[in-house]
Amino acid sequence: MSLAVEELAVRFGGVAALADVSFEVEPGRITSMIGPNGAGKTTAFNVITGFLRPIRGRVLYEGEPLTGLRPFQVAERGIVRTFQKTNVFPLITVFDNVMIGLHLRERAGLLAILLGHRRVREEEATLASLADEILAFVGLSHRRNEAASALPYGEQRLLELAIALAAQPRLLLLDEPASGMNPAEKTTVMGLIRRIREQGVTILLVEHDMRLVMGISDQVIVLHHGRVIARGTPSEIQGDPQVIRAYLGGR
Amino acid sequence: MRRIRLGVLGLLLVTAPAWVWNPYYVHILIMAGIFAILALSLNLLLGYTGQLSLGHAAFFGIGAYTSALLALRLHWPAWAGFMAAIVLAGIAGYGVGKVSLKLRGAYFVLVTISFAGVIYLVSVNWMELTNGPLGLPGVPPLEITILGLVDLSFRSKASYYYVVLTVASAAYLICHRLVHSRIGRAFVALRENEALAESVGINGTRYLVLAAVVSAAMAGAAGSLYAHYTRFVSPEVFLFSYTVTMVIMVVAGGKGTLAGPVVGAVLFTALPEALREATSWQWQMLLYGIFLILTVFFLPKGMVPTLETWLRERRASP
C-alpha cells in the first residue's frame, strides 16, 4: 500500500471537517477523491501533507507515519501536492518557478556556494536543463522567461503542475488541477496526468469535473460530510445510490 | 559588452584615490563603502526573503564594539577583531532569527527593534565594559603584520579606502553567489509564496535563520571597519537612524537586486554631504526628504529595477 489514511478526524470549532475517514491509495494508480463542496477533500489533503494536524487518526506512507511532520518533511519523503487556489511564485519567471521546485534535488552546500565551487556551477547547469525538460513536458517552454503572474489562468495551473513535478514526487496530490480550465485545457491536463502515472508516480486527485474523474481514475473515493460513503471503480461509483443521493439531495 | 562595463567600473573604483584629490571625498567614498556592505546585508533579508529587520544597527554596533573592545582591552590584532566581529554579530543574528523567525513577519520586525533597543541600553549602562555614553576613544588603526615580516598600516584614508573596497567587493560576491544558488532561490520562494515553498521541500525556518545569520555577520564586518576607521565607538552606533538609513538605501536603490543597495548606499551617503555644502542646515534635511519622496513616488520599485526595465524596453524597440 502506498498511502494509508486511518480513522482521521479534524474539527474546526464545532464543525467536524473530517469525522472518521479511512482510505488507501494503491501504488502506481490514479485514485480520485470526490464529494460535494465542504465534504472534507481539501482538509484531507492538508492533513496528509502536514499543513494541518488531525485530532485523531494517522496517515501512513509506505508503512511510515506522516502525522506530525511539517510540510517540507512530507515533501522530502516524496509526497508533493498542488493547491486548490492557483499557487505559483508570482513575481519571478516561469523558469525560476520550476528551478525552485527542483530544490530537493540540489546538493550544493553553503561553503561550496560561497567559494564558487565548480561542482556548484555544474549542478546549476544540470538543473537548468532539467527545468527546461519539465517545462517542455507541460508545454510551457514558450513562456520560459515571462513572469508567472503574467500567464493566463490555465497556464498558471500548468505551471503549478510543473513545480510539483520538479520536486520529484512518488505520490502526487492534485487539488482540482482542471478547475477553471476550458475543455481543450482539461483534455491536455488529463493527458498529462496519465503520462505522469505512466512514469510510475502514484496520483491522488481531487476534482469536480466528473467526465475527467471517471475518464482517468482507477479508483474513486466519495466523501460526504467528513465521511467516506463509497469507494470503488468509476463504474461502480456511478451506479451507487448513496452517491447519487449525496450529490442530488433527497433521502 | 558586460565585461567591458565591469572592467571600466573596476578600474574607476581601483584608481579612485588617485583622481579624487580631496581627502574629504575619499572619506565619503569610505563611508559609502561601509554603508554599501550594510545595505547589501539588509537586502539579503528585506529584498530576498522579504523579512524586514528594523534593528539592523544592532549587528553593526555589535561588530563595532567587538572590534573596539578586543583591540583596547585585550590588545588583539585588528584582523582577529574583525573576524570576531563577524562571528559575534552572526551569533546574535542566529539568536534573533531563532527566536522570531518561526513566527516571521511582524514578529521579526518587533524582535529586531527590541533587540537593538536592549543592546543600546546595555552599551549605555554597562560602564565597566563599554565606558557608557562617553564611548571608546582611541581604537587603534588597522594594521596587519604578515608572517612577522611585512607591516601593513592602513592609517591613511587612501589605504583604508582599499580595505573597505575589498570587503565591500567580498560582500557583493557573497550576495551574488548566494542569490544565484539554491539557497537564494529558497529565500525568494519564501518571500513569494511560503506554503508552496514548503510543499516542494523548503524548510522555511531554516533558510530564514540562515539569511539572518549571513546578514548579521556582514553587518558586523561593516561595524568593525567603521570602528577602525573612525577610531571611536559610542552607543550612537546602535541608533535607529542608522537602520532607517539602511532601509532607505535598499528600498530607493532597489530591493531584491544586487546592484540596488550599492547604488542606494553611494547616493544616500553622498547626498547629505552634497546638501551640506550647497545649502544651510535648515534646508538640508528638507531637501533630503523631498528627494526621497520623489524617488519613492516616481521609482516605486527603486532605481536599479526601473533602469533595467527602461534599458530592456529600449533594446526591444529600437
Portion of residues in beta strands of chain B equals under 5%
- Helix content class of chain B: over 70%
Q: Sheet with the most strands of chain B?
A: 2 strands, antiparallel
Radius of gyration of chain B from CA coordinates? 20 Å
Strand count, sense and barrel status of the largest sheet of chain A are: 6 strands, mixed
Rounded mean pLDDT of chain B is 89
What proportion strand of chain A? 15-25%
The shape of chain A, in one word, is globular
Inertia-based shape of chain B: globular
Mean pLDDT over the residues of chain A: 90
Largest sheet, spatial ordering of strands of chain B = 1-4
Please trace the helix and strand order of chain A, writing H or E for each element: EEEHEEHEHHHHEHEHEEHH
What is the total tally of β strands of chain A? 10
Summarize the largest interface: chains and residue counts: A-B, 35 and 25 residues
Strand order of the largest sheet of chain A: 6-7-8-3-9-10
User: Please, what is the oligomeric state?
Assistant: heterodimer
Main features:
heterodimer, A: about 250 residues, alpha/beta, 6-stranded mixed sheet, 4-stranded antiparallel sheet, 10 helices, about 40% helix, about 25% strand, B: about 325 residues, mainly alpha, two-stranded antiparallel ribbon, about 75% helix, about 5% strand
Brief summary:
Chain A is α/β, with parallel strands linked by helices and 251 residues long. Chain A has helices at residues 41-48, 71-76, 94-101, 110-114, 118-138, 153-166, 183-198, 210-216, 234-238, 241-248, and strands at residues 3-12, 15-25, 30-34, 56-61, 64-65, 79-81, 171-175, 202-206, 219-224, 227-232. Chain A starts with a strand and ends with a helix.
